[in-house]
Each structure stands twice: as C-alpha cells, then as structure tokens.
Write a structure and sequence with these properties.
This protein has six helices and no strands. It has 167 residues and is an all-alpha fold.
C-alpha cells in the first residue's frame, strides 16, 4: 500500500478509536448497549480500501480505545474483541459477495448483528448462565437499529470523502 493510503487508514483508525472512547463515556439506555460510533470509519474504510484496511482500523480502535479507556484486560476486552473480529469477518464477506450488492447500511446491519450475537455467546462462556440467551431478541433489535444508523452515517462520511477527493 502506498504511504498516503496508510496515513489515511491510520487517521481513520484514530478517529474510530476516539469515537469509541467518547461513546464509552456517554450514558447508555441498556448497560451493554452502545451505538457503535467507532464503526463508522470501519465501514467507510471497508468500502474505500477493502477488508484488510478495515481490519487495521478495527485493531487500532480496539487497541487505542482499550488503552485510553482502560479496557485492555479482563472479560470486557475479550467480549469486545470477539465481537469486533466476527463483525469484521461478516462485513468483509458481505462486501465481497457481489451477488448481495449490499450498501454500507446493509453491511453495517450484518456487522452489528454478528457483533451482538458473538458478544452474547462469549458472555455465556464467561457466565455459564443459559438465561443470557433470552437477550437475543433485544440484542438483534438494537443491532438492527444501530446498524441502520451507523450505515447511514458511513454513507454520509463516504459522500464527504468523495467530495474532498474530487477537489
């Protein structure tokens, strides 16, 4: 990859980590639920530079956001890391499968749902309470809503970036 592309990816990774940290400071309607603002740059980078660049942004978000937020150790980090990895895999596959021809909104919904399901499975492995799976309906509903929001915001960012590149 050219140096200027790596710099842009690093910058978007820093933006992703910053959004991740600031969102962690905001009050939440449900204890585990976050909108996922740090995923806006991930989705945008996936569409501009592809899956490998999106993985770099995901890793930067996790590492930098975890260090600043103090979450690099313990079950919270493991749950977040697992959700992020599976979400990236699902979004990358959805992006690669041209038959689906999904927009950033569609890919964001798939990523958010994969993230929530993975987090519940990992939480079950930590807690061992099967009752945790009763949260699946609310987790998928919130993932769909937040996936739509993040997808639209990613579309907006993509349009802004294409405007900047045309100038």
């Amino acid at each position: 990859m050219p140096v200027n592309v790596l710099i842009r990816i690093a910058l978007l990774g820093a933006v992703s980590a910053t959004l991740f940290v600031f969102e962690g400071l905001a009050p939440r309607p449900v204890p585990w639920m976050k909108v996922g603002l740090g995923n806006i740059p991930v989705v945008a980078v996936l569409f501009i530079y592809g899956p490998l660049a999106a993985l770099i942004v995901c890793c930067l978000k996790l590492i930098l956001g975890g260090l600043v937020g103090g979450l690099v150790a313990g079950p919270t980090f493991v749950i977040s890391m697992g959700g992020t990895c599976v979400s990236w895999c699902v979004m990358s596959l959805c992006h690669r499968i041209r038959l689906l021809d999904l927009s950033p909104v569609g890919i964001s919904i798939w990523g958010a749902c994969a993230h929530q399901v993975t987090q519940l499975v990992i939480a079950y492995l930590f807690v061992g309470q099967f009752a945790i799976f009763s949260l699946f309906p609310i987790a998928l509903l919130t993932a769909t809503v937040t996936g739509i929001l993040i997808g639209f915001l990613a579309c907006w960012v993509l349009s802004l970036l294409s405007f900047v590149q045309k100038r």
